[in-house]
Known about the structure:
This protein has about 150 residues and is of the alpha+beta class. It has 2 domains: about 1-40; about 55-145, no CATH class. About 40% of the residues lie in helices and about 25% in strands. It contains 5 helices and 5 strands. The protein has helices at about 1-15, 20-40, 55, 70-75, 130-140; strands spanning about 60-70, 85-90, 95-105, 120-125, 145. The chain has a 5-stranded antiparallel beta sheet. The chain is rod-shaped.
Amino acid sequence: MGSWLQLLPAVRVAIARHRRILAAACAAAAVLLTLGIVVDAARPPEATVTPGSMALRLGRDEAAVPVLLVDQQLAAAVSPGDLIDLVQVGAGADAAPVASGSRVLDKGTTQTGFASESSAMLVVAVPSSMAAAVAIAGAQGSLTLVLHPAAK
């Protein structure tokens, strides 16, 4: 412990002699640190595709579209990977097909907060050219589905 105390006066003298050089070095380090933080903050985050992400499950010309179904029990009847037809139901007996051969990518549950009491959400893969029309119909919550038989 005594050797450290003997070095203190020598360190104090060295700092006093080179105080301008030390101040310039500290200022340069602060500027470089600040620039590094600013550059990192300005860099957009890199898109990562994890093994379970929907991007891996989409085909070349497909888009993932969330849709609200009229009935929660319909969402319970399908599983990811199932092929379905989406049909928009009106107030009367009119029904209009919105998309056929859509693939279910994911489905919401009340535990995840996706579903409300009267409707349930599915995420389906549709052709990119139909994505906007399916999204508009799906946002209205007036869709039902027709389940395709499983391929054998």
